[in-house]
Amino acid sequence: METFVMKGTDKVEWGTGNQYGVVTDWTQLENLQPDSVLRTKNNGTLAGQVPEDKDSPLFTIYTAPEPGSITIGVMEQRPAVMQKLFNTIWSAANSTLVVLAKEKVANLAIRITSRPVNGRKAIITYMNVDALTGYSNNIAKTVQENLAITGTILPWFYLGQEAHYIMQWVNEDGTPINSLPVNVSAGADTTSTTASKALTGTATAAAGKTIVQTYWSQVSGPNSASMTAPTALANTVGGLITGVYVFRLTAVDSAGVENSATVKLTATVA
Predict the structure, then answer these.
(1) Which of 233, 241, 224 is nearest to 198 (CA)?
(2) What CA–CA distance (Å, rounded) separates 33 from 192?
(3) Which of 128 and 118 is assigned the larger pLDDT?
């Protein structure tokens, strides 16, 4: 079975957000505060409406949730980062940054890549985030003051529908994972007049992948049949008695994607 686990932050990228999902200025946001990346999703509510003369709801009313949020801590107050998050006047000649009184709502696109687990990473992309920025930590000898970005997740348009984010699973090297299933056949339904029957299946992996495991199992039948080669495509089942059996062939590919097919065997054994 495939294992998809999110754990840790490998990197965060950001760009200019919009409601159309087109971002052309992705850059990496470096020096993240440890354990500071957090995303939240609020749930809507269902309230049952009970008629005066009844004891149970006749219908329910759905109330949409408040928008979700995303928070990120940044350990370095680099001028280029500050200009993206605050209303500023920057003088490069003397490295002076004036932060203006009018608060800036930065419209951002944010892309989070998790650390690899079991050879896989997740990439979560938010195309439309309105962000405000403050500070965290004291200005002290033992800790540095961090930028604290808090964003409200807004919808963007995807194929004519509103979307919140994209999640893509990739290999550790960043290449996309092909999750197309294995093409499996357990053969056509068949019959037998003897106590054994040869079954032959096929398994073909999607492009770029290979078959790493196949195995037969019995789904149903009047008794438990024996198998001569349960991990091979060609397998003989034995110990049959009169009745209907169903056997399943399962195949697993090199990406951990599995698929299965069944075959019905009708036995008439004297």
Answers:
(1) 233
(2) 68
(3) 128
Q: How far is CA 21 from the centre of its chain?
A: 19
Non-local CB neighbours of 193 within 8 Å, separated by 6+ positions: 267, 268, 269, 270
What is this structure's pTM?
A: 0.77
- Provide the CA 11 distance to its chain's centre, in angstroms: 17
Task: Render pLDDT for 179-210 as a digit per residue (tens, 0 to 9).
Answer: 888 999 999 999 999 999 999 999 999 988 89
Which carries the bigger pLDDT value, residue 193 or residue 3? 193
Segment 5-25 shows an average pLDDT of 94
The residues near 80 (Cβ < 8 Å, ≥ 6 apart) are: none
Q: What's the rounded Cα separation, in Å, for the pair 152 and 132?
A: 9
The C-alpha atoms of residue 65 and residue 199 are separated, in whole angstroms, by 54
Question: In this predicted structure, what is the pLDDT of residue 2?
Answer: 55
* Chain segment 141-184, per-residue pLDDT in tens: 898 999 999 999 999 999 999 999 999 999 899 988 888 889 99
DSSP, residue by residue, the chain: -------SEEEEEEEE--TT------EEE-SBPTT--EEE----EEEEE--TT-SS-SEEEEEPPPP-EEEEEES---HHHHHHHS-EEEETTTTEEEEPSSPP-EEEEEEEEEPPBTTEEEEEEEEEEEEEEEEES-S-SSS--EEEEEEEE--EEETTEEE--EEEEEETTSPBP--PPPEEE----EEESSS-EEEE-EEEPPTT--EEEEEEEEEE-SS--EES-TTSSEEEEES--SEEEEEEEEEEETTS-EEEEEEEEEE---
